[in-house]
Give the backbone structure.
Amino acid sequence: MVGNPSMLKPERPDEPSAIPPELGAFLHLPGPQSLLVKGPAGSGKTSLCLSLLRNFPGFRMLVTTRVGASEILREFPWTASTDPHPIEVVDISVYLDSVTQREKVAADAQQFMLPARRSLPPPGEEVWLPAPLEKALTGRTKDGPGLLVVDSWDGLVEAYLGAEREGRTGTPDRPEVERLLWHRLSQTPLHLIFVEERVDEGQMDFLCNGVVWLDRKVRDDRLERWLSLPKLRGIRTQNVSYPFTLEHGEFTAVPPLRGNFLQGTHTSPEDPPDGPRGLWPGCVDFAEGFGWIPSGRVVVLEVDPQVPEVAETVLWVPMVLETLRRGGRAVVVPTPAFDAELVWAALERNLPDPRFLANLRLLVASDGPGHLQGMTWLADHMKIGSSGPRFVEAHAFLRDGSSVSRPRLFFVSGDGLQHAAARHGFHYDDRNGIASLQSYLQIPGIHLVVSNFTNDPNLQPFTRISRMHLRLASKGGKVFLQGIRPHTPNYILADGDTQAPYHLLRVA
């Protein structure tokens, strides 16, 4: 075999890296199967291929011309562990560093070449494949399912054929090698994945059963990574694109947000209920990315109109829970699409004592479920005036009933506030209700979070005085959270689990 074989072993075989479900289904199709992975330099092709290898249950081999085995171990330390099916690495790049090494590769390749002749023999009469591929295909055809990754196909086939081809008449060119490879592949149960550096379409795009395109872009000074599936035969494609991150050296793609947050019971850290950092936001990822919810200052949350309502709810429910757990009071004006049952289930599951719900008020446009009516203020009981409906009650409710050391939270959706008021003939603008929210900053221990649609003029008074300014954006059906103040990288909002109410994956 050409190169230095070594063994790489996944660290957590029971916790595979997050790959799109379509690619997971591809790995379980009966062989032979072929997949082409394309994208510009640095887009994550090698990381994706290692994740695919990690998710494959049978024989696994990586033929590499770009990244050596030692470098893989250094950049992807999760590969260094025990496993009954280690990843076998064939590194042929070591033979490309000098003339002597190039001669060794050529000598090995000549074992599979015919004497010069005018035409190629029919497939099967002689083998014209690069030595690593032929060795893998020949030695593993009877071993059951296997996955072979060639990273990169350009590097392997160009080294095999050589740069200078003029005057040759009896050796194959690249298209002929690719066609012969497909004939050999059809005789094996293997899955083959090829990495290509070229961005234009070639013969491999048509021959392969599937094509994966990876891309990295910088927009608004923030990195975005996207995986696209322009072609995948035999698989029902639920989503044609996925954002992903390479944080911590692992490929992690993020599916659309389903909203199955707060599935378990989540406790807060052992920190003071209300310290100099402010209110614990209820999620480690949020605290590490943006900090705590500041006390006595405004937090602005811009929301793109395309963002699903559940994304905003995912953020404010943990804040409410943290406020109530610590004996504080909370007033929430949810969006018009507020899911009362979803919120009720999260509150009931995560509060240590249901009596804490007496410290919560929700301003809604109409009656909700009976078990929520004790904590709701209906918009038809509003007090119309310069301060807007229910603002007098909200101010008094947040001031009274708790000591100065207890946190108070006022989360206001501008869209929900205007919707509730409009049903009763009241209209908000920047001169009345929303602007008057600034008066709440005088309440001791208050944490004021104001959300509204991006570029809504009612947000302008708050963006100028905000301590924290965030934006929820919808791109390709996925939700991103980014910090404007403080400026942060992109984070992808992902569903929670029994460990956290939600996850924020930093795009890296």
User: Anything to note?
Assistant: The chain is about 25% helix and 25% strand. Residues 1-16, 95-107, 112-127, 381-387 have pLDDT under 50 and may be disordered. The domain at 4-253 is CATH 3.40.50.300 (Rossmann fold). The first strand starts at residue 4 and ends at 8.
